[in-house]
Amino acid sequence: MNIKKFFTLVFSIVVLISCSKEDSTNPRNGGIDKSANLKALGTSATELLSDVSFTSMNIEIAYVEGNRPADEAINIFRNFLEARTHKPDGIRINLRAVSSSGQAPFTIDEIVQIEKSERTAYNAGDEIAVWIYFADGSNEKDTNEKFVLGSAFRNTSMVIYEKTIKDFANRTGAPSRAIIEAATLNHEFGHLFGLVDLGTTPVSDHEDPNNEGHCVSDNCLMRASIEFGGGVVDVINGSEVPKLDEACRNDLISVGGK
């Protein structure tokens, strides 16, 4: 089977725009103001991309034991962020193991509750914080035809369904786990950047009319391929992670990115 077509589900991403009412009404815990990190998806695009309000970025990756992302994936992810953002004081990526919640398969509300108990990094001074959870299970909405690899669900929050990624990577002829992880991380961060029309107003008309929040360009990182099998879009070419097309790059530049 064609490797590129085999992985058309890499960008079958659930985009959840609303935040948890409980968290947003209880922004403080132990003296920490969390409210700036509990906003709607895409609303912190300029803060993530530019150095106007924040000159550095702190990314906290909490992974369930046994589900640590590959070093190669983290390096590709870091390079993507450095190429798109203005953070003169640097980007820190901190990884730490956490215990399993035992809740898989997950609803997004369960992921929100896990973030509430496990997240430790929040905006501080001129540093913006992002939380990424590598889960030991799948999304509860997965079917035989549709799988979710990751979900950006707040302005600085996302989940990666590592079990699903591992299942794909173990198939004959599949791209490596590291490449799938990197592609998913980059794609989901694109949603944190407000792509496509999820908080960042498009400079040109390039949103896929059939897939809200995704790019219509065939080879773009923000392309969505929902169905496995027929009507597929080639999204991974061997060992290469897709890049943002010109239209998406222009959107990011318009709100302070590179």
Automatic annotation (TrEMBL):
| Top-rank lineage group of the source organism | Bacteria
Q: Which InterPro entries match?
A: MetalloPept_cat_dom_sf
Q: Which SUPFAM superfamilies match?
A: Metalloproteases ('zincins'), catalytic domain (SSF55486)
Output the Gene3D superfamilies linked to this UniProt entry.
Collagenase (Catalytic Domain) (3.40.390.10)
Stated name of the protein: Membrane metalloprotease
Any single GO molecular-function term of the entry would be: metallopeptidase activity
